[in-house]
Amino acid sequence: MKHKISYNSNRFSFILILFIGLTNLSAQTDKLLESISSEMEHFNKVATLTKQNEHYQPYIISVFQGKELEKLGVANLKEALLLVPGVDMATDNSNTQTPIFRGSNPLAYGQSKLFIDGVVVNNLFLDAYSEYLSFPIEMIKRIEVVRGPGSKTDGFNAYAGSINVITYAEDFKDSASNDKLVFKYGSYDYRMGGFFKTYKTEDLKLFVDFFYQEDDKKISSGPDGLSQGIFGANNIALSKSGDAPLWLREYSLGVNLEYKDFSLKARMLEHTQGSAYGINLALPQESDRVKLPSYYLDLGYNKEVGSYEVNINAGVKYDTFDSKSKLLPDDLNISNIIFEDGIYGEHYAAQRTLYQSSYLKYSGINKHTITSGYRLIKEETIDMTSKLSNRATGDVALVDYTYTLPFFDKDAKRDTLIFSMQDEFQFNDDISFIYGFNYEQTSYKDAGLEPRVSMVYQLDTENIFKTIYSRSHRNASWQEMFTMNNRARVGSTDLKPEIVDAFEAAYIKKFSTDSYLQTNLFYLLNKDQIYNSSINPEYRNAVDTDIYGFEVEYKGNISSADQLYLNYSYVDGKSYTQDVGSSDSLPNVAHHLAKGYYIYNLDGDLSLSGVVKYVGSKDRVLGDTREKVKAYSSVDSSLHYKDPKYKYSATFSIKNIFNTNITYPSAPNTYIQDYAQERRTFLVTLKKEF
After folding, report:
1. Domain limits of the chain?
2. Short-list 213, 325, 314, CA closest to 269
3. How far apart (Å, rounded) are the C-alpha atoms in residues 391 and 405?
4. What does 56-99 look like in DSSP terms, one character per residue?
5. What is the rounded end-to-end Cα distance, in angstroms, of the chain?
6. N or C: which end of the chain has fewer CB within 10 A?
7. 553 CB-near residues (< 8 Å, 6+ apart)
8. Structural contact between residues 227 and 140, judged by C-beta atoms closer than 8 angstroms
9. Going by C-beta distance under 8 Å and a sequence separation of 6 or more, which residues neighbour residue 194?
10. pTM of whole model > 0.85?
11. Quick check: 385 and 346 in contact, CB under 8 A?
12. What pLDDT does 621 receive?
């Protein structure tokens, strides 16, 4: 039973005093720093945040540059993430796709956090960010991916990893115009158009990006879940195979604004997709859809005064789950009620997240930089409707069950307080430490104190060593807590947070400024992972896993005219599930992942590239008698031309050249042949700079 968070007077006093202190401090800064160029301070800060010296950072990080990804013909964020060491992809019947970091719980979302220009965009309903995976790569300047939970002690909890997408809004420092237009066309009648525009004055910097994209993707799939008797043996004959509607309609408008020490970041993403493999595991109609819109507005104030730096943020985020679909086929028989025209449904749940954070960084102690502060979060469902075909008579006309038989708790709420403290300690020129903690209290089950400590040892300019210990957690999503009256999913407010203790070690050999070899070992202890199944649909803390492995990453060149990138990942471990006992393997996890790309610059303007990916076979969940998910390899190739005089570029890409059959694993007793993915496709991209 949920309980309200108890903020006692001391805690309120502490927060109030800290906030007032930071506010008073910020009010004095204009007088103290009028003669200092705030713009130059900002540029110095950006140079730090961009992590161009990522090898010296106290975590395991990989960085991919947008312009290099464009040369490779990478279309979107999803394709870029599939190049990251240790990262695979999973999906479900709604085609809600999610990256899997190092085999960590492929049955759940929210294992990682996605940040767009520093703003976390995971939706509240699923704790996923599938709607952002189609973000066009031309809108992205750089992608920084941290594997493991050790990257966040500032009010965020990245359970298995974090992804920071940096747009070209970062280029405020460029004096020249950096405006662009981009158009794309490809398989499945894919069409995309977008632009970004920068406006600058002495004090004001404004960046706007916009894109629209759509396709009519359909992929042959089935037989669907009815073939496994999920709606009774008498309905097995209604199972069918056919085209799963995976089409996309999406547009986005983003705004980044800076005025002196104030910032505004806002985005509106309208994402609509086909109902894929069926909300209830029955193949839907072609026009059936799911909308996953995402909106956020983040206001910030950042100021440095002597040895102090103040950072105050406040924001609001809205996300929605909005489904309209034929849920089950004609002539369905449930409890001797015949639904001659099938069952239709409309389900809508809108969530709002409010947050405010204040952090103070102090560097006045020799060799130390101490950061402390808090983050307050208020999450709630603000609207919900639930409509179905008449359950009593079988009539196809929709009945409003919002109050009598809701699919979701319309009063869902959660309050969270996170207090953080961190010390960056530069022991000497060669050794540095970062240690700190997050402490979290929520309206439900608390994660408590989560420490983190890391050491970076620079033997010399070419040899770097890192060791990291961190603890983090993932709170249950809205779907896992508040879903009701659903045969496939049953929520529970008694869920505890998933907890991970991570031990990591890394060695980096730098051959030059842009050539390196990085190796790392990891051992992860995962407790209370959230799980449900067709046998027991209630979400519960049912799985513990021990995961270990290593990753090797190389970037360099063979000659002065090329670029080479290779990585290999190995992961293994054991899991224990309450329903089925222990397993000597990790279900739905590829033990071996190998990826790489090669770019050959034929001359200064023309380049030819190839991308190769290998994903190993995957064991099934205990009790699932199907054969392993087969391993696969895929090869992509692109030809890229850039005209420096007229500032335009053209790219032609062929993906999955050998038409490999790629599938993502399905849950037991659902789609027996798993979830089919696209085969061979092509893409043409035109971009013009101004």
Report:
1. 9-689
2. 213
3. 10
4. GSSSEEEEEEHHHHHHTT--BHHHHHTTSTTEEEE--TT---EE
5. 58
6. N
7. 62, 85, 517, 518, 519, 566, 567
8. no
9. 136, 138, 139, 181, 182, 209, 210, 211, 212, 213
10. yes
11. yes
12. 87
β strands within 489-605, DSSP E: 498-512, 515-531, 540-556, 562-577, 581-583, 592-601
Q: How far apart are CA 683 and CA 689, in angstroms?
A: 20
Q: Is residue 157 a contact partner of residue 149, using CB atoms and an 8 Å limit?
A: yes
The answer to whether 418 touches 375, Cβ cutoff 8 Å, is yes
In the 8-state DSSP scheme, what is residue 477?
A: P
What is residue 461's three-state secondary structure?
A: coil
Contact (Cβ atoms closer than 8 angstroms) between residue 8 and residue 15: no
CB 473 within 8 A of CB 463: no
Comparing CA positions, the residue from 548, 530, 547, 440 lying closest to residue 490 is 530
Inter-residue contact 305 to 25 (CB < 8 Å): yes
- Residue written as tokens 């004090």? 203
Buried b (16+ CB within 10 A) or exposed e, 647-663: eebebebbbbeeeeebb
Amino acid symbol at 28: Q
Distance CA(409)–CA(412), nearest Å, equals: 6
DSSP state for residue 462 in the 8-state scheme: T
Q: Measured on CA atoms in the order 273, 320, 349, 281, is the torsion positive or negative? A: positive
CB atoms within 10 A of CB 3: 10
For the purposes of burial, counting CB atoms within 10 Å of the CB of 297, is it exposed (0-12), middle (13-18) or buried (19 or more)?
middle
Give the pLDDT confidence score for residue 11 in this predicted structure: 41
CA distance 189 to 378: 42
CB 11 within 8 A of CB 419: no
**Predicted pLDDT at 541:** 93
CA distances 456 to 374, 420, 427, 434, 506, Å, are 27, 21, 10, 9, 9
CA distance 374 to 379: 16
* Contacts with 564 (C-beta within 8 Å, 6 or more apart), sequence order: 554, 555, 556, 557, 558, 596, 597, 598, 599
Q: Which amino acid is at 596?
A: G
User: What are the structure tokens assigned to 601, written together?
Assistant: 């610059």
Distances (CA, A) of 521 to 257, 356, 527: 41, 36, 20
DSSP per residue over 289-316, as a string? EEE--EEEEEEEEEEEETTEEEEEEEEE
Peptide bond into 587 cis (omega under 30): no
Q: Concatenated DSSP letters for 366-407?
A: TTEEEEEEEEEEEEEEEEEEEEEE-TTT--SSEEE-TTTS-S
Strands (E), 331-367: 332-334, 337-339, 343-362
The SS3 call for residue 168 is helix
CA distance to 72, 91, 95, 128, 633, per residue, from 614 (Å): 17, 18, 22, 25, 4
- Tokens 């990522």: give the residue: 54
pLDDT attached to residue 6:
42
Q: Which CATH class is domain 9-689?
A: mainly beta
Residues in the chain, pLDDT under 70: 1-52, 151-153, 172-177, 581
Q: Per-residue pLDDT tens for 168-208?
A: 998 766 555 679 999 999 999 999 999 999 998 888 999 99
State which amino acid sits at residue 558: I
Whole-number pLDDT of residue 585: 81
For the chain, state the CA radius of gyration: 25
> What is the rounded distance in angstroms from the CA atom of residue 14 to the CA atom of residue 417?
12
Contact 358, 387 (CB under 8 A): no
Q: Exposed (0-12), middle (13-18) or buried (19+): which is 461, by Cβ within 10 Å?
A: exposed
Q: Are strands 161-167 and 112-116 parallel, antiparallel or unpaired?
A: parallel
- Burial class of residue 690 in the structure, from the number of CB atoms within 10 Å of its CB (0-12 exposed, 13-18 middle, 19+ buried): exposed
Three-state SS sequence of 109-127: CCCEEEEECCEECCCCCCC
